[in-house]
Specification:
Elements lengths: L11 H20 L3 E2 L5 E3 H8 L4 H6 L2 E3 L5 E4 L4 H10 L10 E9 L11 E10 L4 H18 L4 E7 L6 H14 L6 H9 L10 H6 L12 H16 L5 E2 L11 E9 L7 E7 L3 H4 L7 E7 H9 L11 E5 L5 H13 L4 E3 L6 H10 L4 E5 L1 H6 L1 E6 L4 E6 L3 H13 L12
Parallel strand pairs: 1-5, 7-8, 12-13, 12-14
Antiparallel strand pairs: 2-4, 3-4, 5-6, 6-11, 7-9, 9-10, 10-11, 14-15, 15-16
Bound molecules: histidyl-adenosine monophosphate (HAM).
The site of histidyl-adenosine monophosphate (HAM) has 24 residues, from strand 6, strand 10, strand 11 and helix 11.
Amino acid sequence: MQAIRGMNDILPDAVHWWQMVERTAREVLELYGYREIRTPVVEKLELFARSIGESTDIVEKEMYAFADRKGQWLALRPEATASVVRAFIEHNLQADPLARKFYTIGPMFRHERPQKGRYRQFHQIDAEVFGIDDPLLDAEVMIMLCDFFQRLGLEGVGLHINSLGCPKCRPLFRDDLKQFLHQRASQLCPDCDRRRHVNPLRVFDCKVDRCREALAGAPELVRYLCDECARHFEKVQAYLAGLGVAFTVDPRMVRGLDYYMRTTFEVVTDRLGAQNAVGGGGRYNGLMRDLGGPDLPGIGFAIGMERLILLLQQGHHLAAGSPHVFMAVLGEKPVLEAFRAVQALRGAGIAVEMAYGGGSLKSQMRRADKLAAAHVVILGEEELAKGVAVVRNMKEKSQAEVPLSDLVEFFKGHILAARGQTPGFGPTPSK
Ligand code: HAM
């Protein structure tokens, strides 16, 4: 039996990257006032069709949709925004003044052709904010995204932004684009030839070469913005610039989902081949009303965790998962005392592994080496009699005798000293 194509196991060797990314995401999101929400992975198909849009690639081609035993049409969620908006409406969360900023982390499903960075089950860190129309928030959302990536030490990414206008100014653009595509209809693939009538903006999403070429010289939305949208976009840019965030205005970036208006953005990389978006998002002011809820504005983004982790792994080795201490025991007598010491260290939040079944010092040291333990504590009968243990620093190849009663304090101090060098990656002693 094998896993389904495009759906990956995350093995213990890789899972610490996931944990580190999730931990950092939670820290940053909570710092900016976001609270976690968890929604089901299955929703009514209609929710996605109505929010993402009937004529998008996601809804037309990529959804895992099925009828359940009662004949109700359901879908595995292809993204999280629609579900978070649904939950907000369903539970009347607007009554709660604290319920404005939400985040959720979990698997999404799209039936795309799998390749590096593109999978059928993938994971997103998703953030959504409701009820705030201020361009200051648009800037803050992007600044938080940059803050998060900076904390992770992510390199080689750029922020691209655009404005998609609003229902007031977009129709003008749509008409001109339709006109433009009409003149190039013979160059378009059959899908785009159909879309130019129903949803011409979606032609920008097409990956077929001849459609891309046909779009050379196409009208650009930023030139059609009404006064209000133009002012909003200017302010977003001024705030970003004012906080020293570098960005590029990309008038071609329309995003693949229909619910956006005004600000849209993507974090892109040139280090993952064709899958160049690590994250993306934007403003969606009409969505909550369209789904039957209050008329509250919304903005959010999602980060693709597989892509983010692929980028972080390039050229970096994260030796997490290794114990800080390996306890080697010589002979039968010290076993109980060693076991007590191991539990005391674990109680202080220090990761410890020990040699089950004893064995020679040589074989136990070999095991400690394989586990890449930072220190080995050696307890033999002689040490036990003196009430000490030998602590060997595996990296520096030095060793010292430490009283058994001081072991916890010794390692706590050691870890605190080492922490400054590799923030967030090492074991954390409890306070
Ligand atoms: P999206 O651009 O469709 O936006 O997806 C966000 C991110 O998810 C992408 O930038 C990419 O990193 C990752 N991603 C998408 N599809 C795949 C795939 N097949 N394999 C691996 N990674 C993938 C949304 O989903 C919106 N809901 C974002 C949003 C939230 N907008 C407002 N609020």
